[in-house]
C-alpha cells in the first residue's frame, strides 16, 4: 500500500480540487446528503488497484461542497448480506442524530450466483456507522432477476419511497422498481415505474428522481439501450427525462412531450446522483468514468474521479447544469481579453492546467479552441465551433495517442456561443451556453502541455476571462 501511494503521488494526472481515490478505483457517488451541518458524500471504492474488486463505501465531508475532507472507508463488505461488495445506494437524514443509509449488498452464493440485498446502515452525528440487524430490508420481487440494485431513498409528505434499478424477469428489460414505506420497516412493492414506452435496454442502474424548479426530473443509466432510441457514443449512457408530473403512489412518471436525453455530451459520465438541499436547490454529482473502461492512470494504480458538484435548473422545458457559485473562491490571477483576431492567425495563453476559462464567441464565427496543447501542436482536447451552423465538436486525443475521437452537438444556429471550461490536470468540464449542454471527460497529456490556443481562418471576435484555480488538497 505504501508503495502504491508513493507511485500515485508522482502522477501528473492527480487532480487539484476534485474528489479522487487515494489509491485504487473509485466509481459511483453514493449517499450524497446534508446531515449534521455538513455535506456528506460516499463513493464506491476498491483500494488495492484500478479494478472493480470488492467494493466498500469511502466517506468524505465538506462545509462548502468545494473543500472535501477524507474519512476513509465507512462501509465494508463484512456481513452475509454484502459479502461480495457494498454496492451503490443513498442516504436520508432522519433527524440531527441519524443518517439512514440504504445500499445494495452484493453476494455470490456457493454456486457463484449473484444475490442482491437491499440493506440499511445508520450513521450517528459522530460518524459511527452501524448496519441494521434485520438486513435485508426489501425483498426482491419474483418478477425481477438478481439484477436489482442502487436504491434511492426519497421522503415526501406521503411517506418514504425507494427507487431501485431492476431487470424484469419476463423479458430481461431494464426497469425502475418503486417501493413505499410509512415507517421505514415495512416496504410495499408498488411495481415498475411507468415512465416510457421505449425499451430501456437490459438493465437500469442508478435511478434518481428529484424535483427541479417545480418539475420532476428522472436521471438513470439504461444499459443496452438501442441506438435507435437515443444516439449515444459512450458504451453506457447516463440519461434523463423531464416529467410533467410524478405520482409515486401510482408508480407513474408522466413524461409526455419530453424526450429521453443524454445528461452529458462528453466521453466519461455515469451513475450521477442527486440531492435536494435544505434550501430547496437540486444538486448533482457524477462519476467521471464508465463501466468496462480502462484509463491511462491504471498503470499508476488508481482510476477515476468525481465531477464537480453541479446545480440543476429547468427553464422552458430544458435542463441546465451549472457550476456552484462558491467555486469562484478558488479563482486567482485573473486575465481578461476582448479581441478581434485577424484571419489565419492564432492567440495563445499559457495555462496552469488548473484553471477556469470563459470564452464568448459572437454569432457567425468559426474556429478551434485547443486546450492542453503545446507549441509543437501536440493534442489534448480541441473544441471546433461554428456559431453560424450551431455545430460544436469536442475532439479528444485517444488514450493510445494514435488517433482522436469526437462528440458533436447541434446548438441554436446564428447565436453567440458561451463556453465555461474547467481544467483540472486530467479532467475537463465544459459548460455550454449557461449549462444547456455539458461535456465531461478525462484528458491525459504530458505535463508541459498547458497551452490554450484559439485558431481561426476567419476574423474572430471574442472575449475571454481566465483564472488559475487554487488546489484544495
Ligand atoms: C454502476 C454500478 C451499480 C453498482 C455499483 C457497483 O456503476 O454497477 O449498479 O451498485 O456500480 O460498484
SSE layout and pairing:
Elements: H1 2-9, E1 24-35, E2 38-46, E3 56-62, E4 69-75, E5 86-93, E6 98-108, E7 114-124, E8 129-131, E9 144-156, E10 159-168, E11 173-181, E12 188-192, E13 203-212, E14 215-223, E15 239-242, E16 245-247, E17 252-254, E18 261-262, E19 270-276, E20 282-288, E21 302-303, E22 305-306, E23 310-315, E24 318-323, E25 331-341, E26 345-350, E27 354-361, E28 366-373, E29 381-386, E30 391-397, E31 404-410, E32 417-424, E33 427-432, E34 437-442, E35 451-456, E36 460-469
Parallel strand pairs: 1-21
Antiparallel strand pairs: 1-2, 2-3, 3-4, 5-6, 6-7, 7-8, 9-10, 10-11, 11-12, 13-14, 14-15, 15-18, 16-17, 19-20, 20-22, 20-23, 23-24, 25-36, 26-35, 27-32, 27-36, 28-29, 28-35, 29-30, 30-31, 32-33, 33-34
The site of beta-D-fructofuranose (FRU) has 14 residues, from strand 1, strand 5, strand 9, strand 13 and strand 19.
The CATH architecture of the largest domain is 5 Propeller
The level of helicity is under 10%
Count the domains.
Answer: 2
Instruction: Tell the overall outline.
Output: globular
Mean pLDDT: 96
- What is the CATH top level name of the largest domain? Mainly Beta
- The number of helices is 1
The class by helix and strand makeup works out as mainly beta
Give the low-confidence spans.
Answer: none
Oligomeric state of shown chains:
single chain
Distinct small-molecule ligands in the complex: beta-D-fructofuranose
Rg over C-alpha atoms, rounded to the nearest angstrom: 22 Å
Q: How is the biggest beta sheet arranged?
A: 6 strands, antiparallel
CATH topology name of the largest domain, in short, is Tachylectin-2, Chain A
Main location: cytoplasm
Protein name: Sucrose-6-phosphate hydrolase
Family: Belongs to the glycosyl hydrolase 32 family.
GO molecular function, one term: beta-fructofuranosidase activity
Amino acid at each position: 500500500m505504501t508503495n502504491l501511494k508513493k507511485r500515485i503521488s508522482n502522477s501528473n494526472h492527480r487532480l487539484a480540487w476534485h474528489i479522487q481515490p487515494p489509491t485504487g478505483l473509485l466509481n459511483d457517488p453514493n449517499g450524497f446528503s446534508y446531515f449534521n451541518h455538513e455535506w456528506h458524500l460516499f463513493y464506491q471504492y476498491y483500494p488495492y488497484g484500478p479494478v472493480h474488486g470488492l467494493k466498500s463505501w469511502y466517506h468524505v465531508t465538506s462545509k462548502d461542497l468545494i473543500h472535501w475532507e477524507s474519512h476513509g472507508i465507512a462501509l465494508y463488505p463484512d456481513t452475509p448480506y454484502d459479502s461480495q461488495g457494498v454496492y451503490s445506494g443513498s442516504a436520508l437524514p432522519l433527524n440531527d442524530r441519524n443518517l439512514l443509509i440504504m445500499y445494495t449488498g452484493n453476494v455470490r452464493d456457493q454456486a457463484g450466483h449473484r444475490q442482491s440485498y437491499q440493506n440499511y446502515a445508520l450513521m450517528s452525528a459522530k460518524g459511527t456507522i452501524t448496519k441494521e440487524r434485520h438486513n435485508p430490508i426489501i425483498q426482491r420481487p419474483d418478477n425481477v432477476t438478481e439484477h436489482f440494485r442502487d436504491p434511492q431513498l426519497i421522503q415526501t409528505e406521503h411517506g418514504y419511497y425507494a427507487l431501485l434499478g431492476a431487470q424484469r424477469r419476463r423479458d430481461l428489460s431494464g426497469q425502475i422498481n418503486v417501493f413505499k414505506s410509512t415507517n421505514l420497516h415495512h416496504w410495499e412493492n408498488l411495481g415498475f415505474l411507468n415512465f416510457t414506452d421505449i425499451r430501456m435496454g437490459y438493465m437500469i442502474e442508478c435511478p434518481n428522481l428529484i424535483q427541479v424548479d417545480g418539475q420532476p426530473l428522472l436521471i438513470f443509466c439504461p444499459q443496452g439501450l438501442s441506438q435507435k432510441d437515443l444516439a449515444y457514443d459512450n458504451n453506457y449512457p447516463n440519461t434523463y427525462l423531464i416529467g410533467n408530473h410524478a405520482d409515486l403512489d401510482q408508480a407513474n412518471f408522466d413524461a409526455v412531450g419530453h424526450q429521453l436525453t443524454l445528461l452529458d455530451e462528453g466521453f466519461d459520465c455515469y451513475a450521477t446522483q442527486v440531492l435536494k438541499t435544505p434550501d430547496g436547490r437540486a444538486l448533482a454529482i457524477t462519476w467521471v468514468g464508465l463501466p468496462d473502461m480502462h484509463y491511462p492512470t491504471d498503470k499508476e494504480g488508481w482510476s477515476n474521479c468525481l465531477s464537480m458538484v453541479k446545480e440543476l435548473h429547468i427553464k422552458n422545458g430544458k435542463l441546465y447544469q451549472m457550476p456552484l457559485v462558491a467555486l469562484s473562491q478558488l479563482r486567482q490571477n485573473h486575465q481578461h481579453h476582448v479581441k478581434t483576431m485577424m484571419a489565419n492567425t492564432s492567440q495563445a495563453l499559457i495555462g496552469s492546467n488548473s484553471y477556469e476559462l470563459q470564452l464568448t464567441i459572437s454569432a457567425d464565427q468559426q474556429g478551434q479552441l485547443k486546450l492542453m496543447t503545446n507549441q509543437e501542436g501536440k493534442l489534448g482536447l480541441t473544441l471546433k465551433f461554428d456559431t453560424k451552423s450551431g455545430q460544436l465538436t469536442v475532439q479528444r486525443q485517444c488514450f493510445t495517442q494514435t488517433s482522436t475521437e469526437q462528440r458533436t452537438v447541434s446548438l441554436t444556429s446564428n447565436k453567440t456561443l458561451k463556453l465555461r471550461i474547467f481544467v483540472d490536470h486530467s479532467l475537463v468540464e465544459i459548460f455550454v451556453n449557461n449549462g444547456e449542454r455539458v461535456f465531461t471527460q478525462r484528458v491525459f497529456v504530458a505535463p508541459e502541455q498547458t497551452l490554450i490556443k484559439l485558431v481561426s481562418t476567419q476574423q474572430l471576435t471574442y472575449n475571454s476571462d481566465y483564472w488559475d484555480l487554487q488546489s484544495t488538497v
